[in-house]
Design a protein that fits this description.
alpha+beta; 5 helices; 21% strand; globular
Length: 197
């Protein structure tokens, strides 16, 4: 289960990057870091890539169905993280690429779960399970307005990147496994099978 170190690494990098963007205060250590203002943008590659501080109260792409749905999303995220941990344990003998994919998804899920569960309490704007996910990587491909929403302008975080990478790697791993299962037996395997008969 060494791949869990990948999950841990994702969570640590995700949380450090979010604290750097949002800011934090540790009064016991007399340590205060202001971070960015909500909506503040730091251009890196023109209009294409920026660091933009956004807090996402809902699910992916800022979809928000209200306060009741918020607790359901948080609880679903918690259950999904537990399921992924159990799934990873049960599949600990699978190929490394498969386990790495699941570990990346798990790390990303826990990273965003931490925001949803604790950030409301830590930053004083809501109770447990009512926090907002901090997003900051901003890629602008185009502006397309549909139903008062802008498409083509994406804001995400390290956890989202880990989940997406994990899903891509998982699809790759499953395709490789399917290909190897459908490959005809090698000449040596055929010869050994025939010699036993």
């Amino acid at each position: 289960m060494k791949v869990l170190f990948v999950s841990l690494f994702v969570v640590i990098v995700d949380q450090i990057s979010k604290l750097a963007v949002k800011g934090f205060s540790l009064p016991l250590l007399n340590l205060h870091f202001n971070g960015m203002l909500a909506g503040q943008r730091i251009p890196l590659l023109g209009d294409f890539f920026n660091i933009t501080f956004v807090e996402n109260p809902g699910i992916a792409f800022g979809i928000n169905f209200g306060i009741t749905f918020k607790i359901l999303v948080s609880l679903f995220s918690l259950l999904a993280s537990i399921f992924l941990l159990i799934y990873l344990y049960r599949n600990r003998n699978k190929p490394l690429v498969f386990r790495l994919a699941v570990a990346l998804i798990l790390g990303g899920a826990i990273g965003n779960l931490f925001d949803r569960v604790f950030y409301g309490v830590i930053y004083g704007y809501g109770p447990l399970f009512y926090g907002k996910v901090v997003d900051f990587f901003n890629i602008k491909l185009f502006d397309l307005y549909i139903f008062n929403r802008i498409l083509g302008n994406y804001v995400f975080n390290v956890a989202d990147l880990a989940v997406t990478s994990g899903v891509v790697l998982l699809i790759y791993s499953l395709n490789k496994q399917r290909e190897s299962e459908s490959q005809p037996a090698s000449i040596i395997e055929n010869y050994l099978a025939e010699s036993k008969e």
